[in-house]
Amino acid sequence: MGKLVLEGISKRFGAVEVLKTVDLDVADGEFIVIVGPSGCGKSTLLRIIAGLSDQSTGKVLIGGQDVSSLPPSKRGIAMVFQSYALYPHLTVEGNLTLGLKQARTAASLIAERVAEAVRILALEPFLKRRPGELSGGQRQRVAIGRAIVRHPEVFLFDEPLSNLDAALRNQVRAEIADLHRRLGATMVYVTHDQVEAMTLADRIIVMNGGIVQQIGTPSDLYRRPANAFVATFIGSPGMNMVPGVAAGGVLTLAGSGRLPCTAAANGAVTAGIRPNGFEVLPAGSDGLAGTLIGSEYLGAESFLRVRLTDGTVVTVHEHPDHGWLIDQPVTLRLRPGNLHLFDAESGLRIAEGPDAAPQPVAARVA
Amino acid sequence: MTQTIARRFQISTLAAHLVLIGFTLLALAPTLLVVMNSFKPRKEIFGAPLALPSFETITLIGYDTVLKRGDILHYFQNSLIVTVCALFFIILFGAMAAFALSEYRFPGNRLIGLFLVMGIMVPIRLGTVGILKMMVSLGLANTLFALILVYTAQGLPMAVFVMSEFMRQVSDDLKNAARVDGLSEYTILFRLVLPVVRPAIATIAVFTMVPIWNDLWFPLVLAPGESTRTMTLGAQSFIGQFITDWNAVLAALTLAIVPMLILYLMFSRQLIRGITAGAVK
Amino acid sequence: MATSAQRKPIRWHIGVLLAPAILIYTVIMLLPVFDSLRLSLYGKGPDGEAVFVGLANYTTLLTDSYWQGPFWNALWNNTLFFIIHMLVQNPIGILLAALLSLGKLPGREFYRTALFLPTMLSFVIVGFVWKLILSPAWGVSKTLLGSVGLGSWFGPWLGQPDTALVTLALISVWQFIGLPMMLIYAAMIAIPDELLEAASCDGVTGITQFFKIKLPLIWPSIGVVSILTFVGNFNAFDLIYVSQGALAGPNFSTDILGTLLYRTFFGNQLQSGDPFMGATIAGAMFLIILGGVCVYLYGVQRRLAYYQM
Question: Is the pLDDT assigned to residue B48 strictly greater than 80?
């Protein structure tokens, strides 16, 4: 039994279902990231785990205990909020100790815990200051400190980096990763940023419209996305989605290119090919015909935009010093192992064939 | 269905409701008592004051007396004229001054601002002596115009204060685009900025309307004559006259309450929104 | 780019926009107030015209046997009036605001509207309604109190010198409780939800949350409410006038500075109007209010930190 278990959690507001049946098993010490676009239900899910919101159905179990009807302070959780939510009228020390004092913890234990948090997060210089006198990054550290002193079974993070500026974000992200390594604690982290998800998580839950799209390691999600949504959400720039038709083991893409594919595919499909899955060759070669319509130079690499014969525009990763010119006709060849096939209507991944990476993992889709 | 945590707090919510209901009753009871009893014959007023007027004995005799003896419509009209005109000037001149203060940088801007807003703390009644003398010497004693002037002066500081805050938040880009298009500053104020700060205007309107309508002091001092009597002053004299005629007294009170009550119910949402401006729950 | 010095066009519109407001405000509000205060420095000369007497009027007010009695009486009554408001109106206002700002409370809008209604009523209505309700002749109060077993408590409170002022103060509290309730309610709902959720995660809920988290954050608003109460109370007049008349009976027990001012300036059956002493009382009121506001701004306000949340 994992540290945090969600069984059949769903949530509806009146007639609107914001969360459809979520089941999750988080192991002790695991870093789980819930990621998805705005409104996908990730924050709602986190709040249900915390006990700040009630679920409509299902159970929450923490450390083997059913906490579904317990208030937040009794669940063994600690939460770090997006807006830090520090008590403005208390000093940093006051912020760290309020919860412990409320639980009538022994003074010596409080002192011990505070000293530990201060040490880990380098809060010593701020102890006597009020949140109003601290910068955003410092406040975020205090918020994390407030969570640490509770020695929770599960740490919950609600988009903690969203209010920080870009430069600070990278730094604090690294600090959170460090923290996880040092404490070895179970952490549930919510974000809309797939970069944070990919870099921090042991496993990722991708959500959209209240439905769990896929649960897996970053590598799983990148190499074997369970549906078109996950495929385009993970990875930057996103995966190219090219319409095509499959019949009898042959895939016709963009009306022109023909490729071998799995016999399991039949009818209208969407082919997913990441920008680095293409090779650019002069026109007339074997592959997909297209015209170069744009090029973005980034120093270490370039991204080309190519319009295929059926009008679809794809992004292609290229060497920074390529010699291609705008309006030049080119051919795109697919590198082996880079073809993902999805059903054109449902978006679901179609079973692998010879041209795809081996062994799909059963992914959870609503 | 899981047991919700909210259920745990139901006892304290119940207690909260009890307290609130208690105070609500206390707040509404006096008004209700008066209105109810104004429709009862004298015997029932004394005999069963807490009962609703029964269908058989419902009577309008008090209203009859009051409406015949007093010139209510006239008083109502006076109050209306004074309140509406004062409100108009307060908003007009207040908006103009607020715009000048919030929009342009000029030497003395801050001082003039403080000067105007300081008036919120100044109790205008202390100047009654001087105001009365001024009105008399201008020949404005016993005119509605005197009241309008006084209430305008009284309402301007708050109006300027609130409106300049709101106007500061109107996007500069909007105004500059208009200037580039050749619009005059006055047009910008009246056509662009005012519509945007409508919530502020609504707030001020509701806030200043009530004290003006209900004011007793200035009508008493500046315009006590019959022709310029306001509703509030009129109600006071009625009640003074009919002190032993319970039906008439209750009827007069009800008639005095009703216009305010209707206006309040119509605008209560605006009023409350105005007071709690900025934080909505 | 041309470098020749250009005369900046005179921005007439600024003047035009400011003029009406400044004119009306200065002429009708400020000048008369200062004129009144100036008048307090004058007395009646031998030929009946005004003669400069400096602060003599103020000394008279405070020490002269004819004036000092009523003045100190009015001042004391006014202070008592204020104290009752601070002790009753504000705590209850805070309580109601706290209840109204609780999470999900059905009927919140109804309660707000109903509780604010008395503030909308004119003093005339409030004064007379309560006079009627408390009148022993009608007996409504006696019946109501009787139904909760407190019938023997009832007395003609408004007619008795030792209870009249307190009764009127409570009536005034009844009328105005909506205002502190609203202002503090606004302050309470400005507290971010996430802050209160963090408190719940820390185990700080319910009444503890009110005293440890909410109250410290709304102190500035309570301060504002207090000073507004002060200014309002020391300016009060209408309720007493409507209920007890200009003589503020019974026996001047409900006489406050406002009624004293009215009576002194305009005269009544007992004395003829005295504009100079009237102005002096106005001056005294002005100084008292100014004093209170200054004490608040420099003494209290500084210590109330406005937290950015």
Answer: no
pLDDT tens digits, one per residue of A109-139 = 999 999 999 999 989 998 999 998 999 889 9
Judge whether residue A31 has pLDDT over 90.
yes
- Residues of A in Cβ contact (< 8 Å) with C202: 73, 98-99, 102, 146, 150
Please name the residue ranges forming H helices in chain C. 12-24, 31-39, 56-63, 65-84, 90-100, 108-120, 123-134, 140-147, 161-176, 178-189, 193-201, 206-209, 215-234, 238-244, 257-266, 275-294
Task: With beta carbons under 8 A apart, name residues in chain C contacting B28.
Answer: 114, 117
| Residue A142 domain-assigned (yes or no) | yes
> Where in the sequence is the domain holding C242, given as residue range(s)?
70-255
Residues A200 and A301 grouped into a single domain:
no
Is A33 within the bounds of a domain?
A: yes
Q: Where in chain B is the domain with CATH 1.10.3720.10?
A: 73-231
Q: What is the mean pLDDT of chain A?
A: 88
Which subunits have 3 or more CB–CB pairs within 8 Å of chain B? A, C
DSSP of A206-266, one letter per residue? Answer: EEETTEEEEEE-HHHHHHS-SBHHHHHHSSSSPPEEEEEEEETTEEEETTTEEEE--TT--
- Regarding whether A145 and A15 lie in a shared domain, the answer is yes
Render pLDDT for C85-125 as a digit per residue (tens, 0 to 9): 999 999 999 999 998 888 677 888 888 888 888 988 888 88
Residues A140 and A262 in one domain: no
Q: How far out from the chain centre does Cα A137 lie? A: 22
Site from C104, C194, C200, C202 to mutate, A interface, most A CB atoms within 10 angstroms: C202
Considering the domain boundaries, does residue A20 fall inside one? yes
- The pLDDT of B70-89, averaged and rounded, is 87
If asked whether residues A81 and A131 sit together in one domain, one would say: yes
User: B73-231: CATH homologous superfamily?
Assistant: MetI-like (1.10.3720.10)
- For C42-82, the pLDDT digits (tens) are 887 777 677 787 788 888 888 888 888 888 889 999 999 99
Q: How many domains, in total, are found in chain A?
A: 2
Confidence band, pLDDT 50/70/90 cuts, at residue A95: very high
Q: Which parts of chain C register pLDDT below 70?
A: 1-8, 48, 103, 151-153, 270, 301-309
Query: Measured between CA atoms, how close is A353 to chain B, in angstroms?
Result: 44
- Chain C positions in Cβ-Cβ contact with residue B101 (cut-off 8 Å): 18
Find the CATH number of the domain harbouring A322: 2.40.50.140
Cα gap C158→C251, rounded to integer Å: 12
Main-chain dihedrals φ then ψ at residue A214, nearest 5 degrees = -165, 145
Long-range contacts of C88-92 (CB under 8 A, 24+ apart): C88/C169, C88/C170, C88/C173, C89/C173, C89/C176, C89/C177, C89/C180, C89/C229, C90/C180, C90/C222, C90/C225, C90/C226, C90/C229, C92/B23, C92/C173, C92/C177
Domain count for chain C, please give it.
Answer: 1
User: What is the interface pTM, i.e. ipTM, of the complex?
Assistant: 0.81
What CATH number is given to the structural domain containing C116? 1.10.3720.10
Domain identity same for A70 and A219: yes
- In which band, very low, low, confident or very high, does the pLDDT at A204 lie, cut at 50, 70 and 90? very high
Identify from A49, A67, A81, A155 which residue to disrupt to test chain C contact, counting C C-beta atoms within 10 A and taking the largest count. Answer: A81
In this model, does residue A353 exceed pLDDT 60?
no
Q: What is the domain extent for residue A327?
A: 240-343
Q: Which long-range contacts (CB under 8 A, 24 or more apart) does B252-255 make?
A: B252/B62, B252/B66, B252/B70, B253/B34, B253/B38, B253/C125, B253/C128, B253/C129, B253/C132, B254/B34, B254/B35, B254/B38, B255/B63, B255/B66, B255/B72
> Does residue A232 sit within a domain?
no
